[in-house]
Amino acid sequence: MDEIKRIEQLRKELHEHNYKYYVLNQPTIGDQEFDFMMHELQDLEAKHPEMADPNSPTQRVGSDLNEEFRQVEHKYPMLSLANTYNEQDVADWYESVKKGLAGEDFEVCCEMKYDGLSISLTYVDGKLTQAVTRGDGVHGDDVTANVKTIRSIPLVLTPPASDNLFAAPAYPREFEIRGEILMPWNVFERLNKEREEAKEPLFANPRNAASGTLKSQKSSLVASRQLDAYLYYLLGEELPAEGHYENLEVARQWGFKISEGMKKVKTLQQIYDFINYWDTERKKLPVATDGIVLKVNSIRQQRALGFTAKSPRWAIAYKFKAERVCTRLNEVTYQVGRTGAITPVANMDPVQLAGTTVKRATLNNEDFIKSFDLHIGDYVYVEKGGEIIPKIVGVDIDQRPIIAQPVEFIKRCPECGTPLVRYEGEAAWYCPNDSGCPPQIKGRIEHFIARKAMNIDSLGPETVDDYYRHGLIHNIADLYDIDVQQINGDGSRTKSAQRIVNGIAASKEVPFERVVFALGIRFVGETSAKLLARHFKNIDALMNAGIEELQEIEGIGEVMAKSIITYFHTEENLKIIERLRNYGLQMELATQNSQLSTKLEGQSIVISGVFTHHSRDEYKIIIEQNGGKNVGSISSKTSFILAGENMGPSKLQKAEKLGIKIVSEEEFLEMIG
Ligand code: IVH
């Protein structure tokens, strides 16, 4: 067979195997054989560049993009659905449909409400040409390259040929199909476990994980995250059938993954039965669902019912109640944060809750424990909020064992044994041993190296932990004493050791504002650190400031002022600062000298979009160097918007509404000369 024919054959077969594996869940060949065919195709395509095809099965792992996503206007706006939470709401909707159709018979298509990220796919001549996120409903991000990595989304539709096992009705020349992109529960759990091990921030739920993944600029990362997609809405000028359900059944034959549970019913009782059945059955599904969607089936009737400003009258969402489970509280353990704050944690019998196994829940503070009168051995009700850690929402007193003991909040630090203190007006207990308590010491060093502080990214929490355990570092100043010999292991890690040492040395150029933040003074965040640095201009003035002077600064309150005084009255901290000064860290405000002009004096400027000549952060500095102020959001006080490419549509709308001038990158650079 000639190579061109072979390419075509391999493409066809790989598309089919892909479909059997990812959509039908019924592979007919092994992974190895699949990979083998894929490699053969890759080799042949490399030899025949004239055969390049963006929809070839080899193109699922796209190249890494390096631009922000292009914004695309939706051909049909992407609306949302009105939500309902109980049977009465559903009955009201059913009645309103009946009335809207003047008593005409109608059918309702019931389907799962998938809890992911909505996506609109465009197919032209049977090929996926574009994938766009919902965005603001009018414009979305073009994420085609990333979506192509999702194996259950067909790149090429099964052709309606009669000799084909997957023969399907013909597809329209052009149509859109909408659905939800999801991260399956098992992938989500594995991802979070890996992130926990790598001490990376966890995703609160599969939806956030899917969203973070799809917005990534690296298609290879997207491919590795194994996203899935269910489709639920076909749109276009010439659809195959008059019913929504029937259209989706045809789309299923074209190769799309359609909700398994989809069902057409007539009566209100049948709708309730569907809801009740899936309220429990959905827990067995591989992906997150948060309700049921009800749609009037006939497209003609849908048209007759029409839309309100926000959502269709012909469809409605019924949301399930948050899942709640009951499990046994076995032990309360305590975590010590960077600031010494103690957080109690409930350790419970593991239970399945909304798709994942749960065995810990936060107890916030002592008052929270008291409010539930928690006893060890209690059966507690647990729910998942939007947060990563589930919360306890109640106790079943009836199940309390007779001998159960109330939870006693600890009196001493679980890490260093120091008696805890509780400051007036604060809910948390603190370990006051800042300079001797390991998690506080490590926490402060981790804070110091963080991106928004000294930005020493050659170091991570694990390395900090390692150096601390080996006695190499006890405080932030010790970092600057590290030399290559100490950390190159048996001599085999010279290169990475050199990188770490260089990274630490480079931080000596980090501006004073960020040094103030990096010190980790309790209650002093990024913004307050900036205020302090700008007001006092150097570390000596800040160290000698009195409580009144501190409190006079707008944005610095009493609690923060007191904390700053305490920090600079601690011998240990003064020694550290002296050492940092001697190592050459920036201990005074640089902008005094680098003030270039007053051309932007008194102006509040919003930065939006993507730029070519400088980065966003550089523009922030340029604005300040010319006397202007960079602000985050548009208001009537905004002087102008410095707009790059692809400024967000909501910002644009707001700017237009308030009549705020939009200045391009070039105009801006000219403006400041
Ligand atoms: S239909 C005009 N069907 O829920 C109707 N939406 O609040 C278009 N969703 O943005 C939507 N499962 O992201 C439809 N079976 C389903 C759905 C579904 C989940 C999401 C979708 C939409 C939101 C509506």
Automatic annotation (TrEMBL):
Active site per database record: 113
Annotated Gene Ontology cellular component terms: cytosol
TM stretches of this protein: none
Reaction(s) catalysed by this chain's protein: NAD(+) + (deoxyribonucleotide)n-3'-hydroxyl + 5'-phospho-(deoxyribonucleotide)m = (deoxyribonucleotide)n+m + AMP + beta-nicotinamide D-nucleotide
Gene Ontology biological process terms from the UniProt entry: DNA repair; DNA replication
CDD domains tied to this protein: BRCT_DNA_ligase_like (cd17748), LIGANc (cd00114)
The keyword Zinc is assigned to this record: yes
Cofactor section: Mg(2+); Mn(2+)
Molecular function terms from GO: DNA ligase (NAD+) activity; metal ion binding
Residues noted as binding Zn(2+) in the record, renumbered to the chain: 413, 416, 431, 437
Coiled coil regions in record: none
UniProt keyword list: DNA damage, DNA repair, DNA replication, Ligase, Magnesium, Manganese, Metal-binding, NAD, Zinc
Positions annotated to bind NAD(+): 31-35, 80-81, 111, 134, 180, 295, 319
EC number: 6.5.1.2
All copies of domain BRCT, residue ranges: 595-673
SMART domains: BRCT (SM00292), LIGANc (SM00532)
PANTHER family: CHROMOSOME TRANSMISSION FIDELITY FACTOR 18, DNA LIGASE
Record function comment: DNA ligase that catalyzes the formation of phosphodiester linkages between 5'-phosphoryl and 3'-hydroxyl groups in double-stranded DNA using NAD as a coenzyme and as the energy source for the reaction. It is essential for DNA replication and repair of damaged DNA.
Family: Belongs to the NAD-dependent DNA ligase family. LigA subfamily.
Protein name from the UniProt record: DNA ligase
